[in-house]
Write the structure tokens for this entry.
Amino acid sequence: MNKTLRKHGSCLCKKVQAWIEAPSSLGACHCSMCRKWSGGLTFSVNCGTDVEFEGLEHVKVFDSSPWAQRAFCGSCGCNLYYRLQSNGHYYMMAGFFDDLEGFDFDHQIFIDHKPQLYSFREETKTMTQQEVFESVSSSSS
């Protein structure tokens, strides 16, 4: 069962900071876009729409697909989040947070895109690309 965590995070240069209150659920994405963006798979936390930012003037945002935006710090280049267009949810990068204490690694998406060179020993919920797209489509209706 997920608990609610209150966390603080910042980019490398600390010009962008954020405070969140979100479920302890942490997931991995194996899609090619996330792998290119992060240099490997992406670990993120669904923080909903209520993220308290400081230093927004340093945030650079681009539309990475018809359904999501990605953001990074314009000063240090640190990846910050991707944001769904349909519901406005922020998926903050796990590495952005000061600590990962209390988070539970419990799901993986785009599992059908995962390279064979790695795997996790944890048992998690998994979703294929099609299942993710169906989930995003149904949440915007």
Summary: Residues 129-139 form the longest helix (11 residues). The chain has one domain: 4-139.
